[in-house]
Amino acid sequence: MRLHVADHPLVDHKLTALRDERTDSPTFRRLADELVTLLAYEATRDVRTEPTSITTPVCPTVGVRLSSPKPLVVPILRAGLGMLDGMVRLLPTAEVGFLGMIRDEETLQATTYATRLPDDLSGRQCYVLDPMLATGGTLAAAVQFLFDRGADDVTAICLLAAPEGIARMRETFGADAPVTVVTGALDERLDERGYIVPGLGDAGDRLYGVV
Ligand code: URA
Questions:
Q1: What integer pLDDT is reported at residue 109 of this predicted model?
Q2: How many domains are contained in the chain?
Q3: Catalytic (active site) residue 206
Q4: Does ligand 1 lie within 6 Å of residue 196's CB atom?
Q5: Contact 73, 67 (CB under 8 A)
């Protein structure tokens, strides 16, 4: 598993505003959207392309276009939905699948409650959107789900990650697996409730309110 922690002043600036408890939901949604677009730029560094011939107003030339099958973007419901628009803005031709996962707040175990994904993901590059990599249980289960359907390369984009979650991903997938985690920041630790410290609280609640 590869880890990429964004090291950019604009990411840090937007994350600071996102973390601030005074930031209201509309502003939080806008900032999350902007951050994802910045992180997606890094996350898609190895997106597969193929040569394509075009003619400019000056002469014929060869450029690139995204390869087929097109990448699949998979937001993990519900908080991952807040990252979807920012991602597809950068990859407008990607297909989108959905994975509904919830973690039990006592056991911190993840369970799948909804899926809307192609049955066969052979040869697909997948981009999983999950704002908070905390214990890593949800993300590890989501990535395994995609591998079980044949995906051969998975990149997870997270706004924040905890060292415990990164360790869990490394234990689950090993050093050589085609899994990459791209995060805006690597925070200090988890607290006793499984929240990232300093973190930003419950990402779903801050995006959509407490429901
Ligand atoms: N999920 C969240 O929304 N926030 C955390 O800090 C951890 C998991």
A1: 77
A2: 1
A3: no
A4: yes
A5: no
At 173, list the tokens.
Answer: 């997938």
Q: Give the pLDDT of residue 197.
A: 98
Residue 54 CA to ligand 1 centre (angstroms)? 46
Kindly state if the Cβ of 208 falls inside 6 Å of ligand 1.
no
Q: What is the pLDDT at residue 18?
A: 97
Q: Read off the tokens for 15.
A: 């994350």
Of the residues 107, 111, 120, 189, only one is catalytic, namely 107
Beta strands in 162-210 (DSSP E): 179-186, 189-190, 196-197
Distance 106 CA to ligand 1 centre (A): 13
CATH number for position 192: 3.40.50.2020
Q: How far is the CA of 120 from the centre of ligand 1 (A)?
A: 31
Structure tokens at 203: 């990402």
Cβ pair 142, 128 in contact under 8 A: yes
Which pLDDT does position 211 carry in this prediction?
76
CB 201 within 8 A of CB 211: no
Q: Is 195 in the pocket of ligand 1 (CB under 6 A)?
A: yes
Type of residue found at 22: R
Query: Which domain, by its residues, includes 60?
Result: 2-208
User: 205: Cβ below 6 Å to ligand 1?
Assistant: no
How far apart are alpha carbons 48 and 1 in whole angstroms?
A: 19
Residues of the chain with pLDDT below 50 are none
